Each structure stands twice: as structure tokens, then as C-alpha cells.
COF family HAD hydrolase protein
Amino acid sequence: MSKYAFVFDLDGTLLRNDNTIHPLTLKILQKRHQKGDILAIATGRGIKKCLDVMQELPFLNYFFTSNSTVMKNLETNQIIVNGNLELDAYEFLKNLAISENLIMQMDTLEDSYILYDPNKHAHLVDPNRLMDLQSAVLSTWENADQGIYQRKETILQIALRTNESISEKYLKAAKENLGRKYEVVLTNKIFVDINPKNISKAIAVEYIKEHHPDAEIFAFGDSSNDYKMLEAADFAITLENATDDLKEIANVIIGDNNTDSIATFLQGLDKEQDE
């Protein structure tokens, strides 16, 4: 019997809009684990914003966070850091967020910062798509500055949260000012993600290929930061709610993230093997 490896994005893919995993999907993932398949998450979220998912999925093998800037092996607790941002990125994005009234989210190796005011930033947040704001611990600029300048924390990723009507404007600004030195990508149509150079979720697929060379790798995603991951996988699955660029390269398009479409797809693999 073939061994499979499954790599899932979180927001808009494995997670429903209310930040939960469909019960049937959860059940099927546990069965895949019992069969000996490899299970991994590759997300734009920072590692501290994934603790609740790690608790809900204790049988995962790997967690790739901040668009694979960090990898955690959940079997050995080994953490690998693949790069970092420097002060120029922090200072430019901080000034842009303050001057343009944007939400800024920053992940460091030591902490996670969400610079968000529910009153000032109400125009940026769809209450039906809170994502990691749903359980967020909010920060202040003073606290963020202390983390960077005094505690000298290692910056893994910074994201500006905008909305769909203005996201391209800030994507362009970030690319023009930071794109030569860092990776800049639009995620979920609203986040402008800045990561270290040569960082993408394809790292998750490459790592699994290296350590599990006999496994056939299936990658699931919905947004532009998943593009390279789906390209690198043996089989690319995207969802009905995915961006057009992902749908163009997908082997299969399944239902949207609020349904049991991932579970149904995984169950179908067993039927194919039996035939």
C-alpha cells in the first residue's frame, strides 16, 4: 500500500471561517495517522498562533509556520529556523501601518504581536473572517518596540492586514520598498506577508520529500502563499474558495473550506486503492 503525506494550509483550507476544523475531517485525519501517513501543516500564522490547532491535532508530524520560516517536528520537538527579517523591514512596515491605519501582525521567535485596535481598524475586519484575530492577544507599539530594540527578538514574519479593496496598493508598496531583499506575497486576499528571502511553503514539501522519499505528497491550499507549495507537491488540491492562480495549477478543486470536502477527498483515496 502506498504511503501518503498530506500538507494543509490552515486559514481558508483546513479551518472553517469560525476557526474550527470540520468534525468529519478531524476524524479522517486521525485515521490517516493511524494508517501511518505523514500529516503536516504549512501556514502563514506564527507558531504561537497555532498552539490551539496543535492541541486539537496532537497526531501531526510537522508544523511549518510563518510561511515555513520555522519548522517544528512534533515528534522530536526540534525547531528549525530558516531565516529572519531585519530592522529595515520592521521600521518601514511599522511606519506604513501607523500612517495608513493598517493592522500589523509580527511573529518573532520569542513572541507574537498583533497591533490592532477594534475601533480604529473596524473597516479592515470582516466579522465572519476573524481568523487569528478571534483569539488574539493584542499588543501595543511600545511593547513591540521593546521586543525588537531592547530584547532583540528574532523577527520571522511581518504581515499587514488590509481588506480586499486596498490590498493591491499595499502589496505594491511593500514590493517596491522591500521586494529586493525579502519575499512579499498577498495571502487570503487581505494579508501582505513579508518573509525572509527564498522562504515559501514549498520548503514544507521539500523537507517531507527529503525525509520521506517514498511518500506521495498531497498539498491543500487556497491562497497565493500556497502557490509554490502546490507546485512542488505530487498532487495539488485547492478549494472552491481559492484564488484563481491556485485553481489554474490544481489537479483537483474540491468544495469550500466550510464543508467536509477535505474529508470526502481523503476517503476517496482509500476507495481508489481498493479498486
